[in-house]
Amino acid sequence: MLVGIPLESKEARPSRPIDCAEEMSSYLVEVASDRSKVAFAKIFSYFAPRLRSYALKQMGNEALAMELVQDTMSNVWQKAHLFNAEKGSPSTWIFTIARNIRFDMLRKLQNRKEDVCADDLWPVLCEQTADANETSLEEQVTLEQLGHLFDALPVKQRVVIEAIYIDGKSQQEVADELEIPLGTVKSRTRLALQRLKDMIQEHD
Amino acid sequence: MINFHPTSTQLQRFAEGNLPPSEALVVSAHCDMCTQCMAVVKAASEKVAAEALSKVSNDPSLDAILANIVQQPVAERPSISVPSIDTIELDGREFKVPRALRRYVRKTGNWSSLVGKLWQAPVDLGDMGMANFIYMEKGGRVPEHTHKGSEYTLVINGEFSDGIADYDSGDFISLDGEHTHAPMSDADEGCLVFSIVDKPLHFTSGLARLLNPFSHLFFK
């Protein structure tokens, strides 16, 4: 008989379960309802060292790691009322807060503009008011406008471009049809494309 | 019915917070529409959380942080929540936008007509690039193209086909330079999609080839 490998061996080393979910949930409720510093201290002493371990690994830098821990726990203190035990365990909730803050911190470190924020991607702390700053968009060149530019081409060039790009004819076919030399078709195509390009750049 | 989902790797990396932002945005919007993937992400997040928080690293400076935090005054909770705009309008029709994309409704420019029965409203995502809401009327067609980079598309409302498959509301489509496709809608109601490309499209046929020198101005 082969040496049996128990089926559950795959799960033999489960990540250490956070076994005190109920206890931590009740502390969070106390923080939310009474601003209990004692309850928060219990949550903190359990989670902060764990967050620190995660943060050191993710940020690779003591100062940034501590910033991540501080911001995460500070959110727990301020937003405990948003925790809902029915939706998940305290550890998952606190981790997702940390994950979101890490995401925003990394974006900031890369000098990214705030074009995406973690709470849009993973709605953990949804209580934000709507973003008030409306950005007015620069006018974009549309295909329609390209059509207008296209109309502005000299007729001889436009005919060639239409035949090649819209009707899908070869340059030789166009030359035969218009009874002009192939070289002329080629130069008209080149000039027309150059002209369109210039017009679009001016438009920009 | 939703038939096209992000891969399990994409969902796992999304739960970890390690998916690139533009990809994460479309995955997030898909999860808003897909209870199945939402559940997968939830389960993955629990697992990732348990693992991430399994080790302890104590440090004396944590005490100071604790003291600092409990001294913070209670932040004021916003008393009035301004409802965010959750629909996008085109030609009198209103489409419900998934939660993840709502913030961008305000950053969406005006609809403009592209070739044929095709409408586009650009969404400025800053350095993440340009996204677009694209609406295909019945019979509307995006010229056949391939991608120099990646394209992530979410069907928000309606149905379309692209020569590779048929898609329905909620479907998540991830394409790159290996794919050439020509999306078109035959649905009476047309089709609204949200699409992010990180590099200009490369058109592969007909009139549209004319667009290649300028495609960075349009579909990006």
UniProtKB/TrEMBL annotation, chain A:
<dbReference type="Pfam" id="PF08281">
    <property type="entry name" value="Sigma70_r4_2"/>
</dbReference>
<feature type="domain" description="RNA polymerase sigma factor 70 region 4 type 2">
    <location>
        <begin position="144"/>
        <end position="196"/>
    </location>
</feature>
<dbReference type="InterPro" id="IPR039425">
    <property type="entry name" value="RNA_pol_sigma-70-like"/>
</dbReference>
<keyword id="KW-0731">Sigma factor</keyword>
<dbReference type="Pfam" id="PF04542">
    <property type="entry name" value="Sigma70_r2"/>
</dbReference>
<dbReference type="InterPro" id="IPR007627">
    <property type="entry name" value="RNA_pol_sigma70_r2"/>
</dbReference>
<comment type="similarity">
    <text>Belongs to the sigma-70 factor family. ECF subfamily.</text>
</comment>
<keyword id="KW-0805">Transcription regulation</keyword>
<dbReference type="InterPro" id="IPR014284">
    <property type="entry name" value="RNA_pol_sigma-70_dom"/>
</dbReference>
<protein>
    <submittedName>
        <fullName>Sigma-70 family RNA polymerase sigma factor</fullName>
    </submittedName>
</protein>
<dbReference type="InterPro" id="IPR036388">
    <property type="entry name" value="WH-like_DNA-bd_sf"/>
</dbReference>
<feature type="domain" description="RNA polymerase sigma-70 region 2">
    <location>
        <begin position="44"/>
        <end position="110"/>
    </location>
</feature>
<keyword id="KW-0804">Transcription</keyword>
<dbReference type="InterPro" id="IPR013249">
    <property type="entry name" value="RNA_pol_sigma70_r4_t2"/>
</dbReference>
<dbReference type="InterPro" id="IPR013325">
    <property type="entry name" value="RNA_pol_sigma_r2"/>
</dbReference>
<dbReference type="InterPro" id="IPR013324">
    <property type="entry name" value="RNA_pol_sigma_r3/r4-like"/>
</dbReference>
From TrEMBL, chain B:
<feature type="domain" description="ChrR-like cupin">
    <location>
        <begin position="129"/>
        <end position="194"/>
    </location>
</feature>
<dbReference type="InterPro" id="IPR025979">
    <property type="entry name" value="ChrR-like_cupin_dom"/>
</dbReference>
<dbReference type="InterPro" id="IPR012807">
    <property type="entry name" value="Anti-sigma_ChrR"/>
</dbReference>
<protein>
    <submittedName>
        <fullName>ChrR family anti-sigma-E factor</fullName>
    </submittedName>
</protein>
<dbReference type="InterPro" id="IPR041916">
    <property type="entry name" value="Anti_sigma_zinc_sf"/>
</dbReference>
<dbReference type="InterPro" id="IPR011051">
    <property type="entry name" value="RmlC_Cupin_sf"/>
</dbReference>
<dbReference type="InterPro" id="IPR014710">
    <property type="entry name" value="RmlC-like_jellyroll"/>
</dbReference>
<dbReference type="Pfam" id="PF12973">
    <property type="entry name" value="Cupin_7"/>
</dbReference>
